[in-house]
Amino acid sequence: MMKTLLAAITAFVFLGISNGATLAAAGDVEKGEVIYAERCLQCHGEEGDGLGPAAERLNPPPRDFTLGLYKIKSSAFDADLPNDEDLFRMVRDGMPGTAMPGWSDLLSEQEMWDVIAYIKSFAELEGEPEAQLDYGTQIESSPESIARGKELFNADDRCSECHGIAGRGDAVKKLKNDNGERTWPRNLTNAWTFRASNDPRDIFARISVGIPTTQMPSFADPKSKKKLTVEERWHVSNYVASLAKGEKVVRPENTVIQAARTASELPSSPDDPAWQTAPPSTFFLVPQIIAKERFFKPANDTVTVRALYSAEKIAIHLEWDDRTKSIPGDETAKAIADEELNEDAIAVQFPVTIPAGMEKPYFLMGDAAKPVNLWRWSSGTTDKPESIAILDAKGIADQQPRDANDAGLTAKGSYKAGTWRVMMTRSLRTETADKDLQFEEGRFIPIAFFAWDGSNSEAGTQHSMTTWYWLLLKPATGSRPLFFAIIVTLVVGGVLAWWGRSAAARNRETAS
Ligand code: HEC
Ligand code: HEC
Hints:
There is one protein chain. This protein has twelve helices and 16 strands. The chain has helices at residues 2-17, 21-25, 29-39, 41-44, 84-93, 109-121, 143-154, 160-163, 200-209, 230-242, 331-336, 480-511; strands at residues 175-176, 182-183, 256-261, 281-284, 286-287, 302-309, 313-321, 345-351, 372-378, 387-393, 399-403, 410-416, 419-427, 444-452, 464-465, 469-473. The strands form two sheets. Strands 3, 4, 5, 6, 7, 8, 9, 10, 11, 12, 13, 14, 15 and 16 form a 14-stranded mixed beta sheet that branches. Strands 1-2 form a two-stranded antiparallel ribbon. A hairpin with a 3-residue loop joins strand 6 and strand 7 (313-321). The site of one heme C has 27 residues, from helix 8, helix 9 and helix 10.
């Protein structure tokens, strides 16, 4: 009894202190090969070179295992190998912001070790890393630490050179990975896109080791002119962790954009502080993959929407992160653009008439029976100012542009530190009721969004979009319809929240 207990303790201690290489040695390469063929090959390729059949549609591309280089490493910056736990973690949890799924629901722990043993064999990786990353003593986050981290982030343009002064990844540099493919510095305010996580300990590891295969360098390397001490790296990590957006989170139950009625004038510009009084709703943008030309690699990921209305007019405020201000004709914009530089653009889609029930037009530009309007703003070129147009659409193949003046629609845009803000204003009612939506208080109005990143060569059908959400013009307080609107909002909101949650649950099931 005592002996078994001792053996168990020894095994436990041994596993605990080993860096995982011993554990992975338990991975069975042959079994791993079978799992790989079934689960990994379509992306990572038969030869492990990252050239599987699905690869051409993926950005970033799947890892080429033949090189033996990995992005997420907790071994020392100059060690050739990652720790096996690093690989295990990426296989188990997946890499957010990329196509790499987490496998914990489909593969057992042993199966994950087996497949890891197999992918290591592509580069004949053997043995253990020469040295481990030194975490020193973690410095807890505090306002002082964050302030110090911010200084170090911007000093000598250390991190801002690529990530921009506000950390939104908007610095004007064209970066490529080791394979010559376009890469983007991370937008550090979008914590959900971190491949590892935005926990300070993870950030510390990325700053110390760098992100192999990309231009993100090591700041622990003594040869680096911008080297940071262990202590300094903790301050920078605390600062980066503090950048995560709080208010702009995508919530599945957030499906109704609430437009409040103002007694005063509507804001006059997209930067007007009055906009902060309107509650924000943030939605994911997904690539347009339904109609030709399909599109798989959009650059914009979310859009945040606010709305206000007065007795006569409605104003819609759109805010989205875009690393590049794409103004065709501009030399800086051209230098960082992909193949072709187009204008940045955003569009709001409405049905031409408010549906009587909850039935909406087809979300991708409507259909013959249920036409839609798109209010489409474009950023302009060096020769042409920003502009707005209306598109009358009955499906993606039937779109007619029309002068926005026709309906008295105007728009204004503003670009600052990696963020576009655009405000669109129109009268609630127009004389063109046969062609344009007439807004009404207290009714659910379907609304959807489309976005184009010009520096990512997005134009025409190559864009990102959302599905339909709802816009509600909340009647001014005191009037009877308010009571009704609240009841309807509660009932419909409840149904939608339930629907959103069960859809999310279904997605989780199908993704796994
Ligand atoms: C749908 C496509 C897809 C499938 C299926 C897939 N991967 Fe990946 N994988 C990716 C992409 C894309 C990346 C690169 C992400 C990046 O560079 O940020 C990646 C990266 C990785 C990495 C690199 C981690 C690092 O730190 O660099 C490992 C390891 C990995 N995959 C293992 C696997 C294994 C094992 C399987 C099968 C069980 C698998 N992948 C299946 C798309 C896929
Ligand atoms: C030369 C350009 C460059 C510099 C300088 C740079 N980065 Fe990065 N950084 C990148 C790129 C490119 C990526 C995205 C890598 C990828 O494609 O996965 C990145 C990614 C990151 C990530 C994401 C980690 C994850 O888990 O996804 C963090 C955090 C980060 N950088 C922090 C910093 C900090 C802090 C500094 C300064 C100490 C810094 N970077 C300096 C280019 C740079």
